[in-house]
Amino acid sequence: MIVIKDLTKIYKLSNKKKAELKTKDSEKVAVNGVSLEAHPGEIYGLLGPNGAGKTTTLRCVATLLKPTKGEITVCGFDSVKEGKKVRDKISFLTNEIKLDPHFSASYMFDFFGGLHGIDEEVLANRKADFFKRFDILDFQDKKIEDLSTGMKQKAAIAVSLVHDPEVIIFDEPTNGLDIITARVVTDFLRELRDAGKTIIVSTHIMSEAQKLCDRIGMIIDGKKVAEGTLEELLESESAEDLEDAFFKVYKRIKGEDKIS
Amino acid sequence: MKGAKRIIKKELARVFKDKKLIFTMFIMPAILMFAIYGLIGTLMKSMNSDITEHRDVVTIVNAPASFKETVKATGYDVMASVAYTDASSYTTNKSQYRDDVENGALDLLVVFDEDFDEAFNAYAKNGDRIPSIDVFYNSTENYSSKAHNVFNTLVANSYRQALQTVRFGDLERLEVFSVNEELIEKEAKKGTEFLSTMLPYMIVIMLFSSAMGLTVDAIAGEKERGTLASMLLAPISRTEIVVGKLVSLSIISTLSALVYCVSMIFAMPMMQEGMGAGGVNLSFIGIDTGLMLLATIVLMNLLFVSLISAVSICAKDTKTASSLIAPMYIVVIMAGVMTMFAGGSEMAIWKYAIPVYGNALVVQQICSGEPQLGSFLATIVGLVAAIAILVGLTSKAFNSEKIMFNA
Lengths: 260, 407
Fold this sequence. Notes:
With 260 residues, chain A is of the alpha/beta class. Chain A is built from 10 helices and 10 strands.
């Protein structure tokens, strides 16, 4: 279970960053007072355009960033004060965090299993199970640097789940994957949900969110602007599909002219 | 610290399970050292023997009969190809002779005063003219330099003594007294000059250079590739990650640096043999001095690894890290060079605690067979303090989201 209460994250901007963002402000509010809950047995989707604050929110949950204001608890543990315990409960997957390319998937699985203090026998059984499910067996001893993008992603997913975490956080889970690997990933997420895990994903792909997520929170400019099941969102926005609903919300927040 | 142990194991596996890395880090340096010093030794040996075997080409002008006798008596006419000539032919071709010496066609030109014998015989009292011999040689030509040496020590000295005997009869009256010399040296200090001058400098440079590439890649490289962040997600403290990284990197780079130093020490005699110098004296290495040397080297390496890590973690990528570390390398080299000229003088004990400089001085003391407990302890305290500060700073950097995630 993830509980985010009034999360605000403000970045201080260096002069270089200011120039990059073409702004004179010395601060950027990446996330502004976001509150949400993700429960066991559901996939919660954070939907929003690039730069809306999805990744920052997920990184705060994963203890990699500290909230400027507000608090986050994961399975009852505070993300700042009990970071180690939170990290033991979660799996966090994002494109920017990768496995060491010099080692094989098998070695990395054992290494992270060791860091999580998993019993060797349990680890061996879990490895056999995951590697079979993700079709990793054939390349399990190959160096990760020699694997294709899809293979790397499969290996990364297997390794991130080495400690059978209660909470799974996925930042853009299918980004850069071919449709077959993407399908393997989304199917597996559904399976994990059915096994009672708490899952939170971020995405900007409407069709993916529509098919995968049980509840969706829309984020625009760091603020949560809508939340609900697909049906609830479609009804409240009188929309035909999620994309339609999203643009209606977006226009309301940003104004008509911002879209065209 | 279970997490740190696992990280150490993984980092060591990265190097020791990779045959290519084992070869480039541990085997190639040794082969290179032996190849380089062996080649230098062989080349110098063949150059020296070529010089020794060369028959000097010497022209002697106006040689008195007594001198010709000395040349014969010393066997110089056999050793060198000696040509005698007279004053008139010399005067006509004077510039030609000088040119020959300059371009190496003639190794030595010796010109006696025309009235050498008369002047010698006419000498009666202080202030009278003494006859002279002009010697022309070329110090930029190896053959000429050698011809000059041989002529001075063998022929000129013998001729001077022969004439002194003619003038004074008894040479001992002239010598007045003799000086007896006896060398009293510590066995452990003999032949250590080279090591104690060069080794501290070499060790400092080798340690830094072997730590540099490895650490920049393991810290800035991993940060750039996004693999360091995967470790930050593990349920272990940041300090454990830092300790794991630093210890493993130190082990690998110490081993690599030791391979360099040991192969250098053993390959050195191959070069010295060629130079005609004595071998390297390693008798200063006992159990106590060996341990002192090892402790200093290991801690110095940990210092370098910590320093490079602290810089690497703050850098955006490996390129930035390398450019930030380059000036530090120069400072380290300068500290090493300074120790080459600091030997001998008494120094305040605190100076040995100065990282790098003080450490290199202690290595110098150990290598010259004169280890001192006080300076050794000062250096260890200085090193441990500096390492602790750097480890603290690196851990802080690992905790900083601005540094780790550019947030």
